Amino acid sequence: MGSSPAARGPSTRAVDSRAVPPPTAPKGTHDLLPDASTAWTWLHGVHAEVAGRHGYRLIDTPIFEHTELFERGVGTGTDVVEKEMYTFTDRGERSLTLRPEGTVGVLRAVLEHRLAEEVKPLRAHYAGPMFRAERPQKGRFRQFHQVGVEAIGERGAQLDVEVVEMGWRFLQALGITGVVLQLNSLGDHDDRLRYRQALLGYYRPLLDRLCDDCRRRLEVNPLRVLDCKRDQGLRDSAPLITDSMSEESTGYFAEVRAGLSAAGVPFEVNPRLVRGLDYYAHTAFEYWHSSLQGAQNSLGGGGRYDGLAETLGFPATPGIGYAFGVERLLMVATEQGSAPAPEPACDVVVCSFGTAQAPAAAELARVLRAAGVRTVLDASDRKPDRKLKSADRLGAQVCVIVGEDEVREGAAMVRDLGRRTQARHPAARVVDAVAATLAAGDAA
Ligand code: HAM
Question: Which in 42, 226, 259, 364 has the greatest CB count within 10 A?
Fold first, then answer.
C-alpha cells in the first residue's frame, strides 16, 4: 500500500509528459461532437413531440440505482445482469450499478412516488445514457442512449396498441423506412410456467448440443436458451409459447393484433421473439431494420411487464413500454438522408479590424444577440483576411466588420459572405441590414 501513483501524492506528478500517451475515450463509448448535435437534438425533439402528442410527460431517473433493483427486475439469468453490468461499491459500502436500461428505474420512481394510484396509467417518456459491458461493434456500445416511454398502471389491449403504434409513428416522424415490426406474446405467468416445462422437456435430451451458457441457463430460465445466438438450429424445432397459452392470453394477443391492423400498423407475428430481459409478459415487440446487421438489427423494442412491480416488492401494477437506441436510429436516419445536416455555429460573425475596435464590435454583437441573431464575436488580433476565412468556416452568412473608419463614423460594414457584396450602415441600422441580408440569403 502507499506505493500506487495516486497514493504517493502530487510530488510524483512530475512525470515526463512526453512518455504518457494522450487520453482517449474508453472503449465502447463515443463523444457527441458539435457537428452531430443537430441530428441528436432533432431526434430527441421528435420523440418528445410524438410522446407529448400522446399525453406522455418527461421523467428522469438516476443513472445509477441499487444493484439489487436490476438483479431482481431485469433477472439474474439474463446476459445483462450476468455479464454486462457496471457495478461498483460506493464509499458507504453500497453496491450500485450504472443503469443498463430504463424501465425498472422508471417503474421504481413511479411506484415509490405513488404516481400510478390516481392517474392510471401514468404515461411518461425518458431519454438518457444506458450502460452495458458488451463487446463493442457496429451499433453496439458500452455507453449508449435510449429514448423510451412507459405506461404504468393499466392492463388493456388498446394501451398495448397505443404504445406499439406510438413507436411506429415515431419512426415515421424520423422519416425512417424499411422497418419490420416483430410481434409476439409471452403469455401470463402460468402460461410461462407451462412453457417452461415444455422447453425443459425439449432441451433436456439435447443438453450436450447446447453451449456452456445455455446448459447452465436451462434450469434457471429456459426461455433464455431461445435467445442464444449459437444454438439457433435447435431453436427452430423448439415448442412455441402459443401452444402453452391460455384462452385468455390467446384472446388478448388477438385483440392487440386486431388493434394494430385497425391502426394501419403493419407487423409480423414472430413466435420465436423472446426479449433479452426477463420481465416481459403478454405483448413483446421489436422494430427491426435490415441495414443494421445480425444481433444488432433491432432499432428498438419493448413489451408488457405485468408482474415486474411485485418482483421489485411493490403492489401489483401492470405496465408496458418501449425503448429505442438513439445511436442506431441516427445511423439509419443518416444513411437514409432523413437526418438534418449539421447546423452552422452562427449566422453572423462580428469582426473587429484592429484591437482598439474590439469594444465597439463587442457592443454590436450584444445588440445583434439581443435581437435574436445567432452571433459570434471575433475580437482576436488575427489579420482581417484570416478573420473573414474563419467566419466562412463557421458557416456564417454575414460578417459585420468594425474597423477604424467605422468606429469614427459610428457605423459598421455588413458583408454578405455568400454573394461577396458589402455596404456600410450606421450602427443603429445594423440589425435591420443584417436581417435583410440573412433573408435575401435564405430566399436565394
Ligand atoms: P432493449 O431491447 O434491451 O430493451 O433495448 C432497447 C434498444 O436499445 C435496442 O433495440 C437497441 O436499439 C438499444 N440498445 C440496447 N443495447 C445497446 C447497445 N449495447 N448499444 C447500442 N444500442 C443498444 C430495453 O432496454 C427495455 N427497457 C425496453 C422497454 C421499455 N421495455 C419496456 N419498456
Answer: 364
